[in-house]
Write a structure and sequence with these properties.
The protein is of the alpha+beta class and 166 residues long. It has two helices and eleven strands.
């Protein structure tokens, strides 16, 4: 560092002490900047992100199994060409289930796993006898999150559901 200051002083005709006095605040700020950079470089929190890659607004429900059993939750309303994080922190289980409906064009992104849903915002425990308990049934796609903490699920105009780790 001293060599660089000496070379700079020769180039601009100032003494090395003058150069150092001018640059001193920068040297003092470096540890703070390095600390902040280190904090900002921490890995992102785990999450489940849902992305709507369509030209319509969609409603999305999720299902999962946790320590208390099966659960379904919905609806997340996701605008066209946007994403939303619906679960922050580690996923409750390796398998997450997703079901979505297209509010504007009709139709659904349906899978093969039957779980309970409702017409309005819901959080439902257990997935058996949905109609007998006053709920509807949706066919959910299974997403195997494996060992990844963060996942993005995309719904496309081609009625496809794709999922990948973040």
């Amino acid at each position: 560092m001293f060599l660089a200051i000496k070379q700079l002083s020769n180039q601009i005709g100032q003494s090395p002490m003058t150069i150092f006095a001018i640059l001193r605040p920068t040297f003092l700020a470096c540890p703070l900047v390095c600390l902040i950079s280190g904090v900002l470089a921490l890995p992102a929190q785990a999450e489940l992100k849902l992305c709507n890659a369509t030209s319509s607004r969609v409603g999305v429900a999720i299902g999962y199994q946790d320590q208390r059993g099966w659960a379904t939750e919905g609806w997340w309303n996701i605008g066209a060409q946007t994403c939303e994080s619906v679960l922050k922190g580690p996923t409750p289980s390796r398998y997450i289930y997703v079901y979505a409906i297209d509010y504007e064009r009709g139709g659904a992104w349906a899978g093969t796993h039957a779980m309970c849903i409702s017409d309005s915002t819901f959080s439902i425990r257990e997935v058996e006898n949905c109609e007998g308990r006053g709920y509807g049934t949706g066919k959910f796609h299974e997403v195997d999150t494996g060992s990844a903490n963060s996942w993005t699920v995309r719904f496309s105009d081609a009625d496809e559901v794709t999922a990948e780790p973040n």
